[in-house]
Amino acid sequence: MELSLATRAVAEHAVLEVGGEVDVYTAPRLRERLNELIDSGARSIVVDLNRVDFLDSTGLGVLVGAHRRLRPLGGRCALACDKEPLLKIFRITALDQVFPLYPSVEAATDPSGPSA
């Protein structure tokens, strides 16, 4: 399956909607788009994984890389995901302790919510 990427702004957040499979073949495109967002000044990025069917360790590495680039800039990378198989990956790898996880983009960008 192909990877789809779409970017939109929600308040001060850059939202990257990801669809399809994030694997060793498609992860470089995701990395490139995240780097473009950071290089263009985005400091609050929400990666919407609700249309992702598969995520491997390469994809996890890309997300961690974005987190590591944003942290010294005072930024943050949050994830919107309500798919239990993906959430299980984040729990098993303890990345649920690294990334703020939200069930939806709306929850991740809600100014009254925790850490938003």
UniProtKB/TrEMBL annotation:
PROSITE patterns per the UniProt record, alphabetical: STAS
UniProt GO MF annotations: anti-sigma factor antagonist activity
Chain ranges of the STAS domain: 3-112
Entry's transmembrane regions: none
Family: Belongs to the anti-sigma-factor antagonist family.
Name under which the protein is recorded: Anti-sigma factor antagonist
Organism: Phytohabitans suffuscus
Phylogenetic placement of the source organism: Bacteria, Bacillati, Actinomycetota, Actinomycetes, Micromonosporales
Gene: rsbV
